[in-house]
């Protein structure tokens, strides 16, 4: 949240608002906005809070959502597939992790790292080891309306995020997907 009065004008302009539009959104007068920006007066705490809230709402509206960031091509592997089958899919698709389905629901995640660890521990069992024997916990599932700030926070601790609408998986966001969207 914004707390510096000097930031009001910069943020207002960033959102292409004139003083009157900001005043209407904040429920204050246009002359108050002009005087604050000119440094002539300091608003009451309540008025400042109203202005900051209006600017925060503008930022949230413009914030990219998961729906804009996701890759709609989600490749799943089933829990009872063999690790060798999942390696073939990953190589063919050029991906490094896949969500795992058990009875039609996401139940885990398989990554290059979990596969390499499995092969290192039991190289002779790659043909018979099942995905659900080595998979990691399921990745977080977020709404298509989740903002980029939340997406970034979640990707700090997770390989991927699944994006859903009304319980149906619509897409996937990986760290590399997100980096590819940065201009």
Task: Walk me through this protein's architecture.
The protein has two domains: 7-62, 434 Repressor (Amino-terminal Domain); 67-181, CBS-domain (Roll), CATH 3.10.580. 49% of the residues lie in helices and 17% in strands. It is built from ten helices and six strands, in the order αααααβαββααβαββα. The longest helix has 18 residues, at 45-62. It is rod-shaped. The chain starts with 6 loop residues before the first helix and ends with a helix.
Keywords:
183 residues, alpha/beta, 434 Repressor (Amino-terminal Domain), CBS-domain, 2 domains, three-stranded mixed beta sheet, 10 helices, 49% helix, 17% strand
Concise structural overview:
The protein is of the alpha/beta class and 183 residues long.
Topology diagram in text:
Layout: H1 7-14, H2 19-26, H3 30-38, H4 45-62, H5 66-69, E1 77-78, H6 83-93, E2 97-102, E3 105-111, H7 112-121, H8 131-134, E4 141-143, H9 148-157, E5 160-165, E6 168-174, H10 175-181
Parallel strand pairs: 1-2, 4-5
Antiparallel strand pairs: 2-3, 5-6
